[in-house]
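Quick check before the chapter quiz. The format below is the same one you will see on the exam, so make sure you can read both the input and the output lines.
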Amino acid sequence: MRVFLTGATGFIGSRILRELTASGHEVIGLTRSDLGAKELMSAGASAYLGTLEDPPALAKGAENADAVIHTAFDHDFTNFVANCEKDRRVIAALGVVLKGSDRPLLITSGVGIGDLGNGEPAREDVFDAHHVNPRIASELAGQEQLEAGVNLGVVRLPQVHDTVKQGLISPYIEMAREKCVVAYVDHGANRWAAGHVSDVAKLYVLALLRGEPGARYNAVAEEGVAVRDIANVVATGLGLSTVSLAKEEAEAHFGWFAMFASADITASSTLTRKKLGWAPEGPGLLDDLRDMNYSAM
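Here is the expected output.
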């Protein structure tokens, strides 16, 4: 299979690239630079130069592909809403070249979109078109393409981690370093779902090969890790103390991160495991945080 992969040089995309090439698939990787193109060719892929800011040109990379995996996203969370809208435009452009064929398009979202709002872990079979999370823009764009006849599926991500990066926890660590304290809100009992990057990459490939049109899959190995526990491990790694903040103090301390700091983002992958036979094996989030080299950051 010839797969067009956006985000091919990124944290998750580079792992997906390895999984695809190891399985004998041909990969066309999206990159914005000549350096990225060299990285892709060294990894056994061909390169396609393009950016998220030019969706029509980007979509041309998908014209001759048998399938598309879209993982690229602008992770500047200070412009999160605008970046989610940017993702909507990219998904729409990709859909144009895939419409009317069986060629699959696998897009990316967040596990929080499957939140029922009743305190239970988010589920794959929940889709709320009016969800307050701006990332709903990606799934709304996907739903439009699905209804237009595109063979579209969704992978929803938790905090994806190894010993170098951990999703939202990476900027959380940098904030702690800058402020010389590791903070959490109230008792830090809110939890974040997590998945090791190698397991997440395997899930993308399984979803591409075995997925059903319209299906959503949660890349969740751990349903929820308490933020207080995360803070304690990070504090040990940085040699700092922890502090509990009242909710009204969170915005002043965390800035843009405040919306995430107190969020309870738990999620289940029961349906994903059952439908795809996915069985995560990687280290847990706290293990990876303990094994980090904090002095190298």
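If your answer matched, good. Residues 106 and 208 are 7 Å apart (CA to CA).
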